[in-house]
Sequence to fold (164 residues):
Amino acid sequence: MARARRSNLGFGVMLVVVGGVLLLTRFALMATAPAWLLGLGAGLALIAIVGSSYGALVGGMVLLGLGSGMLLGDRGVGGLSSGGWILLGLGAGFIGIWLLALLLKLSSHWWPLVPGFVLLAVGGARFYRHFALIPPEVMIAARTWWPALLVVAGAWILIRALRS
Fold:
């Protein structure tokens, strides 16, 4: 019971942080953020590899994914938008958590595959140009506020974990 509570707390905190950072990128200019995120992510990933720390691996890969997505978006690689690259980078980071944990024999958790594939699918869908069925106002609102769903889901998980 205590292990499940700790796991839910960690997952809830992760969702709140990732959603909060994504919301922040919507409203604040972050010119040097990719460099800082890549540096911190690489540091945490190295700590995870050297110290066999699953928690550091999760943090490092999320930061590496976010930083690489921001960097690719800022550079305009492939003519794709920054938001799309951030989604794809985060998705790749979550898939990287699962792969590295498997390679390093840190853990056999499958949970990173879920946000990884969801973020990759949403990021890929942003580049799909045939959304004529959805009004542009709805698409703009969804693109702007979808990270709020991560914050709400994380807060809900935190509240449930703290109550038990």
User: Anything to note?
Assistant: The longest helix spans residues 136-163.
